[in-house]
Amino acid sequence: MNTSITTIDNSVKSPVQSRKGIGGKIVLISFIVAFALAPQVIGHYYITLLIPFFAYAITLLGFNLLFGYGGLLSFGHALFVAVGAYAAATLALNTGMVSFELMLCAAVGAALIIATPIAILASRYTGIFFGMLTLAFGMLFYTFLNKFYDITGGDGGLMLPRPTLLGVNFESANNFEFLAGPFYYYCLVLVLLLGWIMWRVVHSPYGLHLMASRDNAVKATYLGVKVREVRAIAFIVSALYGAIGGVILGVNTGLADPELAYWVNSGYLVFMTVLGGYHEFIGPVIGALVFILLQDELSTVTQHWRFFLGVVLAVLVIALPGGISGGFRSAIHRVRTKGAR
């Protein structure tokens, strides 16, 4: 009897679920096609904005694993963005290796070494204690980057030369042609690949354990979840994603800048995540795109762009407490509800 009820229930639900799945795939494919065609459609200037967007999209996919799915808000996560940029620059300047793949490996290795002890310590705390501890480490690293001139270049940073991609050196292309051409598409593929990996992570048993530790750590512990371990892993994975984003930002500007580690940039990561909606997987990515475009448009209009940016973003957050993606979901739900009636 129970089997037959389950079978009937699945047969009723599956068409709806399949429609939702098809709709989501259509939207995803549409976005991929749009970004793939962007260099041929939109102006060159806006292409230069999309590369930082790719970097922040990757960073925020990792950050939201820690914040949205793990419930741990880090105020010093820009630390790992700077780690990625400096690891790539150090590799290139000290060894002469300019392979982008090797730069990514160096960034991931450096982030793993730095993030592991911090994760072991920080996973013991939650709430404001976790946030302030990560902020302290972030500012400590920022101070290190500014003071140790012989290693980090001080406040001038380190130059990051143009890398090769898959062993190909694009010497005939000027800097813009390189960034808007092969490097743009390389980053697009990287975003899609890392996005797919993160999707599998959050929908895996580990993802369920992480969300359980977020919702009720005591109950999760009684159910056998190793709360500290899953939180530490989330911190390390988010650090690796941040380092990869840092390499892209460094290559885009040709510089590993100590300002990448400053607490203001950590605040930007938090704000982009909240703006887009940390309850949705794709929300932080949407937040990054809106934030970058708003910042650029306002900075061309007025020198007081930070004030107006704050006003616009505050209005958006107040009007859409679930973020932009949450607002879209609510609007679609209302339309479907009215259609059903």
From TrEMBL:
Keywords: Cell membrane, Membrane, Transmembrane, Transmembrane helix. InterPro entries: ABC_transp_permease, LivM-like. The keyword Membrane applies. Its main location: membrane. The chain crosses the membrane at residues 21-39, 45-67, 74-93, 99-121, 128-145, 183-202, 232-256, 268-293, 305-324. It comes from the Bacteria. It is found in: Cell membrane. It is a multi-pass membrane protein. Pfam families: BPD_transp_2. This is Branched-chain amino acid ABC transporter permease. It comes from Noviherbaspirillum album.
